[in-house]
């Protein structure tokens, strides 16, 4: 009997080792799939930095797309958590106003340059899509920024990749609104707080 006990014990140890190795490998691959990618901290962000519901820092992965065609307004309303996502979906118009229009921006002398409830007019003189001269009647408001175009069709082209197009417009045309804080590059300071600190 002693002869068979040792091989049986060795086989049991090997089997347990293989089972635990397989479980660890499966757990390791599952954790790779479930881990969310880190948000890019150096990427320019022209969205709302604070959740319009809770006031917390937003996740760039959680947002509701908002559109109000009569006012030419489009936005991504970013939130901090799934519960706030559900709240924004119930009343996106109010959430948009709180996220993008509930602020007053002043210049360094204290003069109001963007009134509360108004979008930030970029006053761009070239169309971001064609580089042609803009028509002041052809515009859209995206994430609280008023962008002018040369013709009505360019706004539709702009909306195919609005975040990239907005960042490119501001960079290429070196647009600066007096008193407007620099866009977020990983920091989550809201425009309202940045304007108040000046």
Radius of gyration: 26 Å
Query: Average pLDDT, to the nearest integer?
Result: 79
Strand ordering within the main sheet:
1-2-6-7-5
Query: What is the helix fraction of residues, given as a range?
Result: 25-40%
List the helices and strands and how they pair.
Elements: H1 2-34, E1 63-68, E2 73-78, H2 82-90, H3 92-101, E3 105-106, E4 112-114, E5 120-121, E6 135-142, E7 145-149, H4 152-158, H5 162-172, H6 191-197
Parallel strand pairs: 2-6, 5-7
Antiparallel strand pairs: 1-2, 3-4, 6-7
Helix pairs in contact: 2-3
Account of the protein in words:
This protein has 198 residues and is α/β, with parallel strands linked by helices. Helices cover 39% and strands 16% of the residues. The protein has a domain at 63-197. The chain has a five-stranded mixed β-sheet with strand order 1-2-6-7-5. Strands 3-4 form a two-stranded antiparallel sheet. Strand 3 and strand 4 (112-114) form a beta hairpin. Helix 2 (82-90) packs across helix 3 (92-101). The longest helix has 33 residues, at 2-34.
Brief characterization of the structure:
Helix content is 39%, strand content 16%. By secondary structure, it is an alpha/beta fold. The model is unreliable at 27-38 and 185-198 (pLDDT under 50).
